[in-house]
Amino acid sequence: MIESNDWRLTGQKKLLFQKTLYFRTWKAPRPEWDHDHCTFCMDKFAALPDTLHEGYTTKDNYVWICPNCFNDFKEMFQWVVGVEE
Ligand SMILES: [Zn+2]
Q1: How far is the CA of 3 from the centre of ligand 1 (A)?
Q2: 9 part of a folded domain
């Protein structure tokens, strides 16, 4: 059970509570943009070895969440997993 004082919680609830998330493969949105971080644990998403390559993201690919944090916080945030159109 995740506590509300978990170190990874830094106010994401305002942005992410009850959002629909999509499981996607990370790819660079622009050539000069080479990585993102999990919005909870800060693990790195990139097209490099030893980084995360897929995870949960908002529809606009703005926020990324690693699979571990998704599992830890899905009840607290009441996420819905969306189906790609
Ligand atoms: Zn994470």
Answers
A1: 15
A2: no
With respect to residue 51, please indicate whether it lies within any of the assigned structural domains.
Answer: yes
**Residues spanned by the domain of 51:** 34-80
The alpha carbon of 66 and the centre of ligand 1 are apart by a number of angstroms equal to 4
Q: What is the pTM of this model?
A: 0.93
Domain total for the chain? 1
pLDDT at 11: 95
41: CA distance to ligand 1 center in Å? Answer: 4
* Residue pLDDT, tens place only, 30-84: 999 999 999 999 999 999 999 999 999 999 999 999 999 999 999 999 999 999 8
Q: What is the 3-state secondary structure (H, E, C) of the chain?
A: CCCCCCCCCCCCHHHHCCCEEEEEECCCCCCCCCEEEECCCCCEEECCCCCECEEEECCCCCCEECHHHHHHHHHHHCCEECCCC
Spacing, Cα 56 to ligand 1 middle (Å): 10
